[in-house]
Amino acid sequence: MSTTLLRTIQPNQFSLLATALFRRRTGNFSVRCCGSQTTTTHEAKQPSQSRVAPKNHRSNKLDEILKDYEAVIGIETHVQLSTLTKAFCSCPNNYGSYPNTSICPVCMGLPGALPVLNSKVVEFGVRLGLALNCDLSLKSKFDRKQYFYPDLPKGYQISQFDIPIASGGYVDLDIPLEFGGGHRRFGITRVHMEEDAGKLLHSDTGDYSQVDLNRAGVPLLEIVSEPDMRSGIEAAEYACEMQRIVRYLGVGNGNMQEGSLRCDVNISIRPIGQAEFGTKVEIKNLNAFSAISRAIDYEISRQALLYNQGQADQIVTETRLWEEGAQKSVTMRKKEGLADYRYFPEPDLPEVILTQEYVDGIRASLPELPEAKRRRYKAMGLGMQDVLFLANDVSVAEYFDAVIGKGAEVKSVANWIMSDIAAYLKNEKLSINDIKLTPQELAELIAAIKDGTISGKIGKEILFELLAKGGTVKGMIKAKDLVQITDPAEIEKMVIKVVSENPKQLEQYRSGKTKLQGYFAGQVMKMSKGKANPGLLNKILLEKLNA
Amino acid sequence: MASRALLAVISASPNRCFISSSWIKIQSSSSSSSLSLHLQRHSRKIQLIGRSYSSETKSSEFQPPDVSSLAETARISLTPAEVEECETKIRRVIDWFGQLQQVDVNSVEPSIRAEMEGGNLREDAPETFENSESIRASIPSFEEAYLKVPKILNKE
Ligand SMILES: [Zn+2]
């Protein structure tokens, strides 16, 4: 799914970068809005607007920039956990509840209320930490991070500061071929447990904001990456992989639109060869993978332009907000010095102690993770495009695994899932879990085609019925009398009939219009209601036509 | 809210001090003039500092409190008289930390948390708090299911 999303952004990248590069110089260069183009009043020398060849996914401009500059990108990912209750109280953790109903003295920070840690939060922290190849702290603790904001009833957030539950890991991923391909490993600095704040709704009119505290106290895991990424694509793929891992593990739904997976990006650029990092800029409000990619490429261009104009001093430590509509980022706040959170250990919570047995138990219960699945699919002989498609969605991967578990041939299964089934899911807006076709029956269907019981064409026809209504392949073949006709005598009868009924076409064929063979084949197939074995049909037809 | 924040600032009073030794170490090596920690990204470095503290105990000078800036961080306004009053109180707390720094903890295993009964985790079983209406009722500005607050776009 994510890969598809990224694919769709390709054509726009040129214009985006061109905009970034030329706006300042020309002053009146237009900005593209959601793909619709306003007129440009200046003939800026833009790269060709034609569709980008897959390999050359970035604009030449960005490639040129990256000859002189290196981008250094790190990502902080907040993962909302799909626990039944909040982190430190028993309030239900339900997205979309009526505002300010899932609250209690603990999450509202009322005097005397004491937090008690949800055991699931620890379990999910360990699961994610292990999945990201981290070292776990058998002893960790919670700290208070103080700040004042209306979405934070207590005046502090319970988080983990100096001793996170997991640290020092990495994640492996494959870059899709259309973005240049390749395998990457990005470092994971740490994973820590914390609580979410409430939700602030800013009214467009009026000078007030509204607060919903249902989310206050909902458990989060924050994943901090090493600054290992070098482009928007790498960062977006990293975020995709985080979503996949979260979903594979079942620790969260990873939904970016709902804010269940939130990414903040830190980015700086430096002239190649320079040892020290450039000034770091943070970008927020990235609620789609395509936004991550585009916002970063925009930022790289913006900073490179300032460098090139001798205005590097104008790159300041700041937080910028990505504006999806305008496809640009704007300053949200400039930071003067480090934020002062006055961390100190949370006195109301004991340290979090894990036993080795507990950790080992969770390790043993981990599902096969995306990277392991991809390597396994690759080893089965599937191409990278198939591998990435199948392993992208855990439900699809499980379905695929179940079908090949029934002995079906790997490549056929991949083809059926990626073409007809995927198209059906897309049209009907369903997930693979919603279809009535069981893995067992897909395996039966493939086998029935392979052994010649039914033709491939009929196979496709009954596929859609099975997807929508369920049932068995054998039952359907029997009920509809779909068994392929493989008896040469029976096919011959039909061929003779068709040929004799079309004397005109036969004459044309015999005088050189051999393309008409297809016409005859179609007529015979129609007469057999699609059941004639195509190989036999063509063989017999040729004999009769050339007789 | 403000009173709670002030409490956080001065919570290190002798009878309820949960501040870990590693915190003190980082604090004393920090050039910051407030009673605060810098957020450092490299947690491993911090852990290293935290874990190696016991072998390098030394007394260090604490900066005198800047009550005005502390008050600003806590979002409270203090009169000059109150600033003066708080300054002596907070200085006493800080001096007490100075005494703690003198303690030789060379042979002591670092404790990341004060002694508490461990293992008190909670099952993930939802329970709706029955009197949430009274919480909502006590919110000074509550309208149409939401808390109504002044529009603030700039966090921190
Ligand atoms: Zn609660």
TrEMBL record, chain A:
Identification of the protein by name: Glutamyl-tRNA(Gln) amidotransferase subunit B, chloroplastic/mitochondrial
Top-level EC class: ligase
Species classification: Eukaryota, Viridiplantae, Streptophyta, Embryophyta, Tracheophyta
Gene Ontology biological-process entries: glutaminyl-tRNAGln biosynthesis via transamidation; mitochondrial translation; oxoacid metabolic process
Catalyzed reactions: L-aspartyl-tRNA(Asn) + L-glutamine + ATP + H2O = L-asparaginyl-tRNA(Asn) + L-glutamate + ADP + phosphate + 2 H(+); L-glutamyl-tRNA(Gln) + L-glutamine + ATP + H2O = L-glutaminyl-tRNA(Gln) + L-glutamate + ADP + phosphate + H(+)
One Pfam entry name: GatB_Yqey
Family assignment from sequence similarity: Belongs to the GatB/GatE family. GatB subfamily.
MF terms (GO), sorted A to Z: ATP binding; glutaminyl-tRNA synthase (glutamine-hydrolyzing) activity
Main location: mitochondrion
NCBIfam families named in the record: gatB, PRK05477.1-2, PRK05477.1-4
Keywords per UniProt: ATP-binding, Chloroplast, Ligase, Mitochondrion, Nucleotide-binding, Plastid, Protein biosynthesis
Annotated gene: GATB
Location of this chain's protein in the cell: Mitochondrion; Plastid, Chloroplast
TrEMBL record, chain B:
Annotated localization: Mitochondrion; Plastid, Chloroplast
Record-level Gene Ontology MF annotations: ATP binding; glutaminyl-tRNA synthase (glutamine-hydrolyzing) activity
InterPro entries in UniProt: Asp/Glu-ADT_sf_sub_c (IPR036113), GatC (IPR003837)
Keyword Nucleotide-binding attributed: yes
GO biological process: glutaminyl-tRNAGln biosynthesis via transamidation; mitochondrial translation
Keyword Nuclease: no
One GO cellular component term noted in the UniProt record for this chain: mitochondrion
Principal location listed in the UniProt entry: mitochondrion
Reactions catalysed: L-glutamyl-tRNA(Gln) + L-glutamine + ATP + H2O = L-glutaminyl-tRNA(Gln) + L-glutamate + ADP + phosphate + H(+)
Pfam family, one: GatC
SUPFAM superfamilies: Glu-tRNAGln amidotransferase C subunit
Keywords on record: ATP-binding, Chloroplast, Ligase, Mitochondrion, Nucleotide-binding, Plastid, Protein biosynthesis
EC number of this enzyme: 6.3.5.-
Similarity comment: Belongs to the GatC family.
Function according to Swiss-Prot or TrEMBL: Allows the formation of correctly charged Gln-tRNA(Gln) through the transamidation of misacylated Glu-tRNA(Gln) in chloroplasts and mitochondria. The reaction takes place in the presence of glutamine and ATP through an activated gamma-phospho-Glu-tRNA(Gln).
The protein's assembly and partners: Subunit of the heterotrimeric GatCAB amidotransferase (AdT) complex, composed of A, B and C subunits.
NCBIfam families: gatC (TIGR00135)
Protein name (record): Glutamyl-tRNA(Gln) amidotransferase subunit C, chloroplastic/mitochondrial
Gene: GATC
